[in-house]
Amino acid sequence: MTRDDRTEFATDRADRLCQLSGRGSNARNVPYLAFIEELGKENLGKERAKYEESVRFALHRDRRPRRRGWKDRDNIASVEEGEEEEEEVVEGRPWRGGGGPRMWHLLLFLVLGATLGLGATPAPGALHERVKYLEVSENVRPGTRVGFIDIDSPPYLIAPVPGSPVETDLIIESATGEIRTRVPLDRETRPSYSLVALPRVRVVITVLDENDNAPTFAVDHVYIEFPENSPRDQRGRDGVLYLDLQIAGSLDREIRSRYHLVIEALDGGTPPLRSHLNVNVTVQDVNDNPPVFNQTRYDANVPENATVGTPVLAVNATDADAGDNGRIEYSINRRQSDREEMFRIDPETGMVYVNKALDFESKERHELVIVARDRGAQPLEASTFLSIRVTDVNDNQPDITVIFLSDDATPKISESAQLGEFVARISVSDPDSRTEYSNATVTLTGGEGHFGLTTRDNIIYLVVVERPLDREEQSVYELSVEATDAGTPPLCAERTFRLLVTDVNDNAPKFEHERYEAHLLEASEPGTSVIQVFAIDLDEGVNSAVRYSLANATWFAIDETTGLITTVTHVDCEANPAPILVVYATDSGRPPLSSSATVRVTVHDLNDNEPIFEKPLYNATVPENMPVGRCFLKNANKFSPDNPMGCFTRVGAASLRPAERAAVRICIHSTMTRPGWNKG
Length: 680
Known about the structure:
This is Protein dachsous. By secondary structure, the chain is mainly beta.
């Protein structure tokens, strides 16, 4: 057998012995019995040194280092220079009980000597190990007999297994092999005992359980929390007690937030022992309740002259949840209401305040949508309506509306209007109150008595003509309408307008002069200006537009717009030295009116014609006794108009003189005597 084989064999036997003794595989502190059996099969003298090395290697494997140079007193094991020895570790602690290595080294030496008989070879099977199993109930009185090791082969050398408190809890009679209890045993503290009775008996004592311990909870009270929305049959496990708690029904923190459970643990003994555990279950809140307003609709009144910041009304909502799930924040839904932000709301208190100046006349009622939202991770919300009525105050003057009854709705009236004819319609309203405007007092001023105000119901007023109108006397009137409401204090409004008197064609054009005088040279060319006449018309517009015209004029024409008279042909003084023209001025009214004036044109002659006798020869017979001054020939010559004052030369005794313009008479100038006749 090689060294490695012996080492493996020793380790395996040590593990088996430890398992039989009730200890773990780490309790390899006493594997000597296994080696005793094997040592009897081989020559101790030859192999002693090799086995000591194997034993030392097996005993000290997986142990903490000892100081160098250590050697046990029995020279079984030592640590040479350059090697390290480890101290046994049992359940995380250095081994301190059972006599320690020193006692076991001594025991090993004695056993080896007694068993091997100073090197004699034992018979086969001489060291066969037997196991004796005994039982004893816990809590029996001290001195109670447990049993005997083996009645056939006393006395015994008792070797308790290290870590098994045989010496403190049991009494072992080595002479008889009887085992008794030294103290009351406790199965919960030590369920079994192991010992070795040399030469070859191993005793295992099992402590039987008695129902002497009630079930024990680690703590008296347990606090557990469940969300209220936990589904039915959900299980919750406590990490310490391994209690399996199951929800049997739906939880609702708002109905019940805490539960007190008493859990009773019973063992299976007779009689059973009990223990109790108090379990306090807290139902955790989840955000499963939306806010709820105490009213589905709110109504409030506020005067229109309320200043910014005036409180209006406080809304109130509650939330059955807890913590942030139950904390409510108020707001106004601006998408559905109050986009002008006339009001604001305190998010914490729900108080609504005036945010901007109000105006009853602009908006009499405001409808607000108020939202209450909790502060849960997934917030819930609710809405309500707030209707705010703006009450009126007397802060507006009456409103005067004037509608003129002319054809184009402008302030005008014809001068031909009859008495009582309507000029305008006046209505008065008061924005402050829709019922108070009928109490307004309305007056009319101006117009110099030509206009008046009449009404039938104190609501609609009419401006009427009370005196005849004449545009030519006054074409514009300043009228003023004043309305005073019935408020306290009263407010008044005034409306002033200019009323135009429109024209009718009641005036004919009028010339500056009734008769005009003009002079014109006979040699004037056509188109020569003669004279310009002018007429005015007191009317206006088309009624005052004058057109001029001439009646029966051959040589002359007149511009119908300017009234300028000009020649259209050459004039002839001899034909008409002083023509008289009749000029007409006509307006454009309907019907048109006209007037006339006369123009006398004096044509100055030009000597452009020789005198012409009507006959080349005139014969006249006169008595010789015709008195002087008697004319005997009339119209002997008709002179040209160029020079009506013609010159004549006398031939003979007759006298020639002009009698009238363009007429010649021949008269006796002196006594005539017939030639060749003598009176005697």
